[in-house]
């Protein structure tokens, strides 16, 4: 009964219905992007609160490429600078270092994240199986296998207690590793510069920056570690000394920014960008509303006699509401298909794509939390909006009795 | 048994359309309602047909005050107890003749649908009305007379007690008009009740009773049969 009604009344204007659907599809893309980005930004802000609480400063590597190339060529000297710099940091600062290197394993790609102990003061990395690093993990003498945490996507390494050999492009050596824990799915850390972007650890191997590693520390590792180096419980004047230390040795030009200011700056500009997108989405929203209203109203008015006929044959006027809700539900599902496919394809592309330098967004499941929640929010919003428009129009339509126009008029 | 009882029926819309109208229809009778255009004959059909509830007075259908019926009950009455035949044969062009005739069955409950062999009823009805061969046609391929017979079949598919017909023969040639009138006579022979609005005195004369609507009132002008 309802499908017949939907087909012959609500969807009778095929072209206008298609145009409306297309407008709504473009609206869903914008609103989905907006919702997802806001959720990520909100989550990022929550996760990065500890940086503000610990008065952290974030390193931003602005070293000219030429300088980096020269230093890497002159490895002996620059590696010595790297080692002395680590000593200098250890003696004078509390800091969190996160070095990211890529590696290949046949066709499966993974990244090696070398982190120091303080990294865990800022980021809550959850373990799915096995256990996390202990203090001893960071004091390893260098002879025993390196304890590592393995991302849940790296099935080849996902055996707690087993040892493997991997090539670390940071140290330039083959390393013997021992898996002590498998990471829970979708462990991620928010980018300090763009808290709506995340680095996922599903395809990562996390290894500790041990005392013995610091003795063989090199320039390649340091250049990677300088970006996003977190120095905390200190003052801006103090972190500027780090800047000077590196500049004096012509090794790097690293600027430090207060995490608090950095985040505030991001959210100020983010709010502006978000507002522009919101305004744009509202324009599309109003165009869609207008098209839907026109389409529905014209269809109802033109079919008034046919609807009255159905009512005379036993349909209840209130069943027009049910038919409308069902129609809008179907329409919402259809409208959501492209954005859901986009979301799935995007996630899959990231899962199978090459690991970038920052190994960002390596998703293990097609639709992890925020992606799914964003789709759900969009679905609910569009469905409620469509139902609301329909209910208002049908209420207005039903105000005039559905009489059969017989011979007199 | 009184199928329809109307007491002190009044209706105003910009002007007084009906005032203090009263009449009743007995089961197994065929009544013609005549009157000039704009006198409110259609309004009476819409009120008896439970499509217009904006009136004063009382309307009893099968001894039930229709004002006491819920929306669902009213819909069920329209679906199972009433059948509408209009001057302009209102059919849904996108549906076949078969789908048009069976449309009222769509609004029955599943149990009600299962209790009746509608396919057999469809065949019998359409054979009686001479439209059996048209079941798979679309309405826009039919003549006016054929369309009206399809409307009649649709009105009867749920075997209603009361047929409300508004100028059912108004747009038909003599042959098709006779088919409809013969159908009505068969119906009353089976205990059904027919209320026909007509301008045609020849058609009116073939009814048991003639009611005239004039100056917002209904007058009984005779039993012609």
From TrEMBL, chain A:
Keywords: Cell membrane, Membrane, Transmembrane, Transmembrane helix. GO terms for molecular function: transmembrane transporter activity. The keyword Transferase does not apply. It is found in: Cell membrane. The chain crosses the membrane at residues 277-297, 318-342, 372-395. It comes from the Bacteria. It holds the Pfam family FtsX. It is a multi-pass membrane protein. One of its GO terms (cellular component) is plasma membrane. Residues 279-401 form the ABC3 transporter permease C-terminal domain. Belongs to the ABC-4 integral membrane protein family. This is Permease.
TrEMBL record, chain B:
One of its GO terms (molecular function) is ATP binding. Residues 1-225 form the ABC transporter domain. It comes from the Bacteria. GO terms for cellular component: plasma membrane. Transmembrane segments: none annotated. Keywords: ATP-binding, Nucleotide-binding, Transport. PROSITE patterns: ABC_TRANSPORTER_2. The keyword Transport applies. This is Antimicrobial peptide ABC transporter ATP-binding protein.
